Amino acid sequence: xxxxxxxKLSLYNRTLLQKLNEWLDSDETLIITGSRxxxxxxxxxxxxxxxxxxxxxxxxxxxxxxxxxxxxxLCNQGTKNFVxxxxxxxxxxxxxxxxxxxxxxxxxxxxxxxxxxxDHYKKIKTVCSGSSTLDIRRKFKDxxxxxxxxxxxxxxxxxxxxxxxxxxxxxxxxxxxxxxxxVKEQQPDAPSSIVLTELEILLNEYIRFGGYPxxxxxxxxxxxxxxxxxxxxxxxRRDINQLFSIEKVSAFNRLVGLLGFQIGQLxxxxxxxxxxxxxxxxxxNYLFILENTFILKLLYPFYTNKRKELVKMPKVxxxxxxxxxxxxxxxxxxxxxxxxGALIENFAFQQIVANLRIDEDLKFWRTQSRNEVDFVxxxxxxxxxxxxxxxxxxxxxxxxxxxxxxxxNCKNAFVVTKNYFGKTQKxxxxxxxxxxxxxxx
Length: 441
Prior knowledge:
Elements (H helix, E strand, L loop, with lengths): L2 H5 L8 H6 L7 E5 L6 H14 L7 E5 L3 H8 L2 H10 L8 E6 L7 H11 L3 E7 L2 H7 L8 E5 L5 H7 L3 H8 L3 H5 L9 H17 L3 H5 L3 H23 L5 H12 L8 H7 L4 H13 L3 E4 L15 E4 L2 H7 L12 H15 L6 E6 L5 E7 L3 E6 L11 H9 L4 E6 L4 E5 L2 E7 L6
Parallel strand pairs: 1-4, 1-5, 2-3, 3-4, 10-11, 11-13
Antiparallel strand pairs: 6-7, 8-9, 9-10, 12-13
Helix pairs in contact: 8-9, 11-17, 13-17, 15-16
């Protein structure tokens, strides 16, 4: 696709675009990672459109798809041949040149290729995409240390989903209820029941079918299921298996299925190892692969006192609830399924992770006496978040939150409810109650 064709594309914005835009004028190589079908190519196109808005000439912007064997062969011949090719296209390198590589992991030695471009061709700014952090990590050696910045693109957040649904009014409304906005002491007013009802309908669709852009844009439950099944079959069951030469394919696929039924639960490696008839080391390798191909994430415990606070075992969450629902073959409505609470917890996890700053980390908290908090955002302050997907008539502080703020100096805490909006205080900590449809992380 040429630059003029990209210029004419009508694309939906992604939250990550702003962060990437801030680095377009830097010298570092930018690398966008994420699963297949998550929107990496569209994000590259959005960045190209941003450059054109800044009046960068289209003569100095290039897009190369490395799934094109001719382009891949050219790049594998080395930087000299590649730069010579650009000169034949008319590039004189007198001005800054922006080069976009899609699916960079297909290169035989992407690390050396990008290093040489960075070090010897100062006018070239490179932006790349790649589908697997593990494959990129394997091919990207230490030679790119200090020369690259890696960004992770996840499936659509709920806010992005609303944008894709052309619900700009709801998107603007929802922005005021973000954790970061509330923590800044900008507490919004209580929402109307009409708005909550509309958001609840959209949230139900989002949790059932997830945030893969192609799935979000298409209408019809059956069509959404077909697309989700295609992503599952081609990416999880085929591409990942082939990419990492998984020997015990049936054990790997069985593990994915078992984890689909365990969202929000502790991962017992010994039990899983027995259930998939594989050694513990094999199981750990499979989990590592699933994390680094953006299927799921393991959440680890927060603790300061190792003797009192249990749990070395992590909890598991999927990065897309629609893919998870396809794995367990259940896309029915939330009010008709026993795992609704677990899906709401998984939803909250997705929103928090997608909005974490680089100086923040996410954990969970659980003690030997079984006091627990679902999520703890850890940075310069601790923010506990508990999921209570049930109706509230008045503020009721969950036991885990109560114990946590007794033990730690918290200024803010959140309880995610089914439909209750309110605020109370305990031990100097402001505790906010947010209906789940307002929880954007």
